[in-house]
Amino acid sequence: MAVLxxxxxxxxxxxxxxxxxxxxxxxxxxxxxxxxxxxxxxxxAKINGEKVSMVEYKERLNEVKxxxxxxxxxxxxxxxxxxxxxxxxxxxxxxxxLLFQHFEDDGIAVSESEMEDMLYGxxxxxxxxxxxxxxxxxxxxxxxxxxxxxxxxxDQRFVVITDYLKSQIRxxxxxxxxxxxxxxxxxxxxxxxxxxxxxxxTKVNFAYIALNxxxxxxxxxxxxxxxxxxxxxxxxxxxxxxxxxREIDYVVFDITPNAEDSAIVEKQMETLxxxxxxxxxxxxxxxxxxxxxxxxxxxxxxxVPAGYGEAVFAEEEPGFLSDIFTQDTSYMMFKVADFRIIxxxxxxxxILIEPNENRSYQQAYLFLDSIKQEIDAGADFAEMARIHxxxxxxxxxxxxxxxxEGAMVPQFDDAxxxxxxxxxxxxxxxxxxxxxxxxxxxxxxxxxxxAIVKKKIDASTDTYNKVYSKASKFAxxxxxxxxxxxxxxxxxxxxxxxxxxxxxxQEIPGLKDSRILIKWAFNEDKGSVxxxxxxxxxxxxxxxxxxxxxxxxxIDFEYVKSEIEPIVLKKKKAAMQIEKAEAALKQYNxxxxxxxxxxxxxxxxxxxxxxxxxxxxxxxxxxxxAKATSSEPNTGIVGPIEGNNGVxxxxxxxxxxxxxxxxxxxxxxxxxxxxxxRVNYEMMEALMKASDITDNRSKFF
Length: 701
Description:
The protein is an alpha+beta fold. Among the domains are: about 1-35; about 205-240 and about 560-655, no CATH class; about 245-255 and about 460-550, Chitinase A, domain 3, CATH 3.10.50; about 260-340, no CATH class; about 350-440, Chitinase A, domain 3 (Roll), CATH 3.10.50. The chain is built from 24 helices and 21 strands. The strands form six sheets. Strands 18-3-20-19 form a four-stranded antiparallel β-sheet, with helices on both faces. A four-stranded antiparallel β-sheet has the order 14-5-16-15. Strands 6-13-8-7 form a four-stranded antiparallel β-sheet.
């Protein structure tokens, strides 16, 4: 009884615990448990057993990014540049772990004196030539380079640039030393040089009959899955992969504006049109209300939008207001702000201040602005140009003479041709900051300055939600491979295919910023259907089905089935042509008679060597070349031979032996040169194949 009573007393606690666990299981997402027991990946790679942490990779990446941003004087990098730098750093990691970290043990190093020699000494490194050489002459001012690096080491702003350039030069030099050691170790035996000479200079002439595969129509050849599978199983070495890959089918649901969206924008434009009529400053109105403001809003008669050229230029005064019209996917209207003459040529002078390691673009601009104030106060422009300008025209007081449009860089041109005589604008170009004095302008073409108001017809929130709802419904109702395919047909949708997607690909061809779909494909099983994924840059939703999964090693038969079919088709055609040739060979031992039996002609090929790349009129046929050059003349008919493009029967009627030579040094030098040129590439290929590399980049990016 005491035991029963004890159980009764504890029952309430047990029930509470049970209910609590049940509620916990009910409210917790099952994926949470994966997080509890699966430790998140912290290494971006594992190379021959050594772990490469994400922290190390990011430190390297940030170093390169800092260099690029300092070198380009920018604070941000676009997505494409970011990806290029990630790929570059990945390759640097591979090189470091497979090669560079072992160089010190091998005695491969770069001394300080050697570094100085490559920076500004007698043996300038290509990286210095590329970054500091005059683009016109290729000449390098070594004193400037020395000053740049010595100053850079003391100026924190340039430490990033100088350190990075030095590290790249040092690594490149080490690699050059290593590959030089390897190339010097290459040896070409005399026997190999002799064989290559004989293979190049021994020539044969032969007569042949060709039975081309194209003579047999594809549809007349029966191919079964068993035929394809048989070839696949007999040639597994042809279907090996070093990388994982995926293939998807997908449908796109475009977020396109409808009639209601168009009407909303049109209504807005109608209101603006009324206000535009009486607004005095047309360009100011356009800046406030247009979604796109043109930097050069000048139009000749034939260039005025919507065919308004005649009407615009019929007016002598500004103020003409167009009706609302559509262009592409936008509503537009314009008002003539002014008429002016765009000159054929301009006479100008300038003062150029170049940014350098001690002066930024902003500082150059401020310095020139102070010079402009002095000139406005009475200082002589030409004298100021002779004292301060970094441009070659400084000796002439900055005078550039007369020039036509296109003679200068675009920013400089625009200021001179779209400004007015007497203006003195400050303009930044790739060369630095210019203070331009527009002295004179010639006669030119009359143009209209248009203040254009443009509003894009975008999909409304309601339209967006409807498209999302449609895409989501499609994904949820057709979440199996079979229903996905069936729904595409029933709904008349366009199925698109993305094949051979690799794990670290950033986008699917034709579908920008689609990395999310690639990551999805590598985390799902074959036949899975995705949810509706938004691709913002393409303004659409995408639903995908994973159709093929290819892992490392032997590729799945279904994945390569389409590749095998043309091979098997050719094999079957070859068997049919061989059967014809063999039947004729049993009856005749003369090429002309065989050709007559097969309704063919006898052709000839001359001066064919074992090293020949192709046979005239036949194409690349290595099997035929090998058989013909190894046959002796006048020894009968050889064949049938299965080639790349057909089946061949031939007879060698002449053979010219290679002339004797005293030695084979020329041939040996040619082979050695080829081998040395391939050392760098083949060395890395061999290292990569011999190494065990686990690439986890796709888990982070």
